[in-house]
Amino acid sequence: TGRLDVLNGRTGQIMHLNHQHYENFQAHRSALDIPAAARAFKRPALVLHGSSDGAVTETNAHALASALPDSTLEIIDRAGHTFGAREPWTSSKLPLHLAQVTDRTIAFFKR
User: Fold this and answer.
1) Of 13, 51, 75, 100, which has the highest C-beta tally within 10 A?
2) Would you say 35 and 67 are in contact if contact means Cβ atoms under 8 Å apart?
3) For residues 104 and 111, what is the distance between their CA atoms, to the nearest angstrom?
4) Hey, which residues does 74 pair with through a beta bridge?
């Protein structure tokens, strides 16, 4: 069909990945190599990951942190992929896990 249909587990929406996405990735493979980019990154980095992330595995977070020369990895207990945020956001208060992420990010930049 020229495309791959992927179900978004959170929204139930069918996401269409056209063959052009694959071709574009292949054409720019070296520029899109996340581990290589991480190894070349020469600044301190903070990697935050939710322990209940259903989209990205904790193994991926550890791999990214390992590839970054000067990184700190923090796992947010019971947090999902969006750290509790949803679209549209109608509350004036941050979700618990997103507040934790915000606090840890601010502390990281202040050090």
Assistant:
1) 100
2) yes
3) 11
4) 48
Taking only the tens place, the pLDDT of each residue in 38-91 is 999 999 999 999 999 998 999 999 999 999 999 999 999 999 999 999 888 899
What is the spatial distance between Cα 108 and Cα 44, in angstroms, rounded to a whole number? 9
Q: How far apart are CA 72 and CA 69, in angstroms?
A: 10
What is the reported pTM?
A: 0.83
8-44 b/e (C-beta count within 10 Å ≥ 16 → b): eeeeeeeeeeeeeeeeeeeeeeeeeeeeeebeeeeee
